[in-house]
Specification:
Number of helices: 7
Strand order of the largest sheet: 3-2-1-4-5-6-7
Radius of gyration: 17 Å
Strand content: 5-15%
Length: 261
Amino acid sequence: MNVSYDYSDTTVVVTGGSSGIGRAVARRFGAAGATVINADVRRDPKDIAEEQPTDELVDDVGGRGVYVETDVADVAAIEAVVEAAHEYGGVDVMVNNAAIFVSGNILDLDPADFDRLHAVNAKGVFYGTQVAALDMIDRGVGGCILNTASISADLAQFDHVQYDSTKGAVKMITRGAALELADHGVRVNAVAPGHVATEISEGWTESASEEVQSGEVIKHVPLGRAATPEDVAGAYLFLASDDARYVTGETLWVDGGLQVF
């Protein structure tokens, strides 16, 4: 069953929208008629199988695409992209998706890697939530903030402690912000993907489609495969929709049943 949404009067900011889950989310909102601002440090996709920038893709599927160069670890950069959204009526949906991944055992962690991971993955979500909420409140409108968490928010994995700790932070930022922003009519939720074939890991050269076939990314998934970014994107549209008007502070697991174990 295909579910259709109409976001034709909606402005959506997607951080990290050039590739992976962010790109799929941007495309889906664009196909539903939204103005989508891709806030990323780079315009071009990382996936070697993709050449078209996300803003052009959004235009092609029926939305209005915009690109704003944004480093989410810099609160001033997030303030700038939220301000840029005023040209299109102001941000209605803020998707804090940008993230990086660096593996490493706790005994060997590089402090610089740890700080960089938390600056992007945790601080970026905190700043994005804070700045978007302040703008929504200042404009006197309710809004929706969606954060990309992960199964790593609850599931410890070998050599993932620094990454897992950032996603645990995202989950609690979501819950705490939902509590504090409810009186302002701002809903805050998170999507927690499981194994998804994306380009988040530095040094990957395979395309997402090739990674789906990798035995290493589909272990212990009851549905028997890794997700594609498109498998995850619909959850964001649902949580931003009126059907989720009474949902806040939730983490929606999109993991192929991995949490069953």
